[in-house]
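Folds vary. Our protein:
___
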Amino acid sequence: MAKINEQLTLGDIDEEYQKFTDKFKPKKTTDDCYTPANIYEAVLSWVVEEYGIDPNKVVRPFWPGGDFERYDYPEDCTVVDNPPFSILSRICKTYMSAGIRFFLFAPYLTNFSTRCPGMCHVITDAEITYENGAIVNTAFLTNLDPMETRTAPRLRELIEAEDKKNRKKGKRTLPKYEYPPEVATPSMLGYLCKYGIDFRVRPDECFFIRALDDQRRLKKTIFGGGYLLAPAKAAEKAAAEKAAAEKAAAEKWKLSEKEKQIINNLGRRL
């Protein structure tokens, strides 16, 4: 507050009072990313079809001011919801310990960092425009799937189709780093998913790491963590990346023979 012996104008008082009351207002965080109804329905429809769960036994325990630990979970229910990302690890461990089935929204690039035995990392790299305007690249965590990690191309398609209805999509670029074929990161799986590649890794085919030894000497890490892959799975990943690259190349506009001829004649003096 301003000093008592200062002569304050009405504007000064209003400004100081605003600063004071702002201290008690709830701060906006990534936990305020409430899911648009059409996005949620698209995700739920995929989960019901993919895992055969009963849609009538799906529950959503996460809402403003709610307490997921005190929620009364019906018998044989499945949680399909967008939880607060800040306590995601605690939520997953609680559900795994209690034997509660779940399919949860999660950050994309740090998806592998939430560790829990028996849980699958479902990578989509789908941009979702949440109700607070935040655009978050989203993936998922679940104990409904026996894989350690996998892509879900059809789920990505469903989300993208609905997200286009909610906003005009912009194009963003992320930095790319070169890793050996035996390494898998969320961004790599997101790339495969983007081009419709269904890639799945069992728990016995991978080993979680936060950095390669070669990175540690430079104090670098794999953002969000990654997996070392078994030789056969690394070879499968390399083939999948090649197939994705071919699909990406096929999407590029090409010059016709006529246009090439025009270009070849350009710059020639008559």
In short: Confidence is low (pLDDT under 50) at residues 1-6, 23-30.
